[in-house]
Amino acid sequence: MALKISEVLLEQIHANGEHAYPEESAGFLIGGEGKVEEIFPLPNAREDSARHNRYLITPEDYLKAEVTADKLGLSLIGVFHSHPNHPNRPSEFDRDWAQPFFSYIITSVNAGKAIESRSWRLLEDRSKFEEEEIKIL
User: Cis omega (within 30 of 0) on the bond before 43?
Assistant: First the structure.
């Protein structure tokens, strides 16, 4: 299975990661049927001392994203976040907080520059992530 996204939206995800650097950035992927139609960037609500390697999405921000997706006639289909100065592979922390059926785009941002994004899906049994292809439209 592949996650489809436009080059423009992927560039916006990269810009979001670069802007947040050296902290992690985060937001939701909005769309349907494996295609990202919009992104919903969010502030990192994690405490200051942990933002360099953790992000937090509040319940209020989750609700705002759900309402936005609903107004667009779409759904939340995933989350994007950055890994400052770290590979774009999910961490154990990412696995602990992830939801099956969501796509997780992780962008490696090194020295303030977005390097590469990869997408991951958590298996239903929560045992591990599997990489999914990102198909640029």
Answer: no
